[in-house]
Amino acid sequence: MNIASTNPYTGEIVRTFDAQTAAQVEVRLAKADKVFRDWRKRSFAERAALLHKAADVLDQRKEELSKLMTLEMGKLHKAGIGEVEKCASACRYYADHAQEHLADRSIATDAARSLVRHQPLGPVLAVMPWNFPFWQVFRFAAPALMAGNVGLLKHASNVPQTALAIESIFLQAGLPDGCFQTLLIESKRVAQIIGDPRVKAGTLTGSEGAGRSLAQAAGEHLKKVVLELGGSDPFVVMPSADLEKAVDTAVKARVQNAGQSCIAAKRFIVHERIAERFEEAFVAKMAALRVGDPADDQTELGPVASKQGLDDVDDQVKRSLSQGAKALTGGHKLDRRGFFYAPTVLALTPGDVTAWREEIFGPVATLVRARDLDHAIELANDTPFGLGSAAFTRDEQEQERLCNELDAGQVFINGMVKSDPRLPFGGVKSSGYGRELSGEGIREFTNAKTLWIA
Ligand code: NAP
After folding, report:
1. Ligand 1 atom 11: the closest Cα is on which residue?
2. What's the mean pLDDT in 273-288?
3. Where do the domains of the chain lie, and which CATH numbers do they carry?
4. What pTM was estimated for this model as a whole?
5. Atom of ligand 1 nearest to the CA of 427
């Protein structure tokens, strides 16, 4: 059984689901196609009223929805509440701002009137990951729906109850049945669905391999995709930084969501003049994290989401150690039931070491030293990924150089990388292409139609 909820705190399978049959999927595709014809004609005001209701439903159900995330993927309860609130804020943001982001744009030409008008594309397939199982979906759904598209969700196979809950939220809010549907299917059926003529575009948040696979299938049918893939974000600390703030932020940025965030800081690049002080404080704080039951609000680090995820992290750390990395704390699974990995700091010399080259999706930080800013930037960019990046420095010239020279979709100075509905989000290099959120995000799934009227 591939589609199942397994509790990462206990390791027990809680509930299993049968995948939808071809006939059941066909009913959903037909419904999406039909509903789109009506939904696209609704005014922004009508759609906005329904998105505001969806936000209210999220707020009302946040306790239940957070518990579902804790059950299915081990999210800390408090973080789950925050995630649901963030989804509500994205619904409200797009309800209030979609019209302005998509407003006609007049351009003076030889015509009496010429302009660009953004129109929806149709049903969009969203292939989503389990790590922020509500947020990833809503940051696609809120703008897509407000633009007049409809959504088909293929969620990760370990969060089926969350996937069904998301569909129920939109129905409860009063959106027409078919505007947002969940497909309970395995990933091998994604290629066929993106090829269906009724599906007009796709978006995938997940690993590089899954992204390549969707891009390939979509390419065959010339369909647009947005890809939000993995990351191995650098976190640069320079001598002028507020060291205490940098250390506190470093710990949070690495272990949020048990280390399973695409924009988690993963490679810590510290100027050699302050490296010893940073290292001592950082290792002490990582080692002191309270590990335990994700439902307990005192817990700071819960389990990783799956047995496979735990084994992958363990294998990557073991390979790194055999390649010369040194564990300053942790470096092993925890000897208890559930999928727990010890908070870990690996010191290493950059090069062909797994922890430097690959994304580690668990509470494992990689620590290296830089000689100067040039070296720090070179190290930061020495990765196949280019999602987020953070740097701590109070020197304005250094800030400017980091903003210009870090090869990433986003640079955060003196703060941790986070997504915000008002700001575009996405990556370069192997972290994918396209943008979500803000005006850039909502325009991805529109036809920017040129109108020329003599
Ligand atoms: P994953 O294995 O790639 O799964 C993500 C989604 O893709 C799931 O729905 C999965 O379905 C599906 N999938 C897997 N292989 C596929 C294929 N060959 N064709 C079509 N769909 C496929 O990733 P994950 O382990 O769940 O998530 C972790 C990864 O996501 C990390 O690399 C992380 O950095 C990245 N991520 C990126 C962002 C971002 O915004 N850039 C945000 C969050 C996570 P099944 O579950 O059924 O296999």
Report:
1. 156
2. 98
3. 2-229+428-453 (3.40.605.10), 233-413 (3.40.309.10)
4. 0.98
5. 41
